[in-house]
Amino acid sequence: MSVPPGGSTPADNPPPDVRGFWPDDRIAGAVTDVPLLSRTAHDRGHLSRSLPDPAQGRPVRVLLVDDQRAVPVRDGDGRPELVYDERPTMPEGAIYLGEADGAVYAALRGPRPDVTEGGQIGRWAGLREVGGELGDLDAGLLAQAVGIVEWHERNRFSPMTGSRTTVERSGWVQRDPENGREVFPRTDPAVIMLVHDGGDRCVLGRQAVWPAGRFSILAGFVEPGESAEAAVAREVAEEVGIRVTDVRYVSSQPWPFPQSLMLGYVARAVDTELRIDHDEIEEARWFTRDELRSGTGPQALPPTVSIARHIIDRWVAGEFS
User: Fold this and answer.
1) Torsion angle of alpha carbons 92, 93, 98, 103, nearest 10°?
2) Does 42 fall in a domain?
């Protein structure tokens, strides 16, 4: 049960108009801050979700999320900024995200407007494209907005009775109208791991659907009744046929495509002969630190928005051995 290397899930197939987007980046080693690693500069306000009016007279800044999970963006001073539609009250169907700087933030699913009001929206962009460049407040709100919108899109009916659910608590609960049971947002745990040989090499793999020459670290879903560390060992064995030891946790990253939490690890290979399961991945190879540092290895690495790149950079910089 595999996740394509790099932190994407099987449902994470970008639409045709963005499938070709991939940063031209093949040199690793400058340690990157993962922009979606706990970058939350707003109060999620979990108690306010149960109030009839979570805004309570404060201005509401609404982030419109279209059916491709793109949002309005303008290019500010040195970095992009999300464009919010400020309203006096929570609009119907909006999902409460929390509050910051005296304002309430909400996400609203809907089509892009035909006309950009006031010319404030420079472009529409997705989390992969701009997540690494946003400030902390925008990055945290965008990851949260995309994740909760995905949950609503995929859970319109009760898993217990099949009845269409009703939305409550400002978008954070769906209720089965037949039995009254509440359905809450869920997050799927997945592991993503850099496997090294204890020396100067690590394993990178690639999916057939990726652009030619693009490699990343291995990843996979945690199965029921399984620990994250056991999932690391199992997924590596399944994908490239080697055993690992010294499995160590690095950090985590929300990856709302559609609803994963990526748990990052490094692990040391016990044996080094790769036996690739081509049903899992197309190709896997050992790469040296120098190849990744100099750009003579893969033609493309994961973007800096991803935990995959964060772990690769830290290993190349010598943090893990």
Assistant:
1) -30
2) no
For residues 169 and 97, give the distance between their C-alpha atoms in angstroms, rounded to a whole number. 11
Question: CA angle, 217 as apex, 188 and 271 as ends, to 5°?
Answer: 110
pTM for the full predicted model:
0.86
What would the pLDDT profile of 191-227 be if each residue is shown by its tens digit?
999 999 999 999 999 999 888 899 999 999 999 999 9
Phi, psi of 230 (to 5 degrees): -65, -35
Res 38: pLDDT: 58
Domain region containing 91: 48-183
Sequence-ordered list of residues with C-beta below 8 angstroms from that of 166, at least 6 positions apart, any chain:
174, 175, 177
Q: Please write the tens of the pLDDT for every residue from 43-52.
A: 999 999 999 9
Lookup: tokens for 206: 């690639």
Q: For residue 215, what is the domain's CATH number?
A: 3.90.79.10
State whether residue 147 is helix, strand or coil: helix
Q: What's the rounded mean pLDDT across residues 89-105?
A: 96
Q: Are residues 127 and 227 in the same domain?
A: no
Are the C-beta atoms of 90 and 170 separated by less than 8 Å? yes
Domain finish residue from 183, 201, 228: 183
In a domain, 291, yes or no: yes
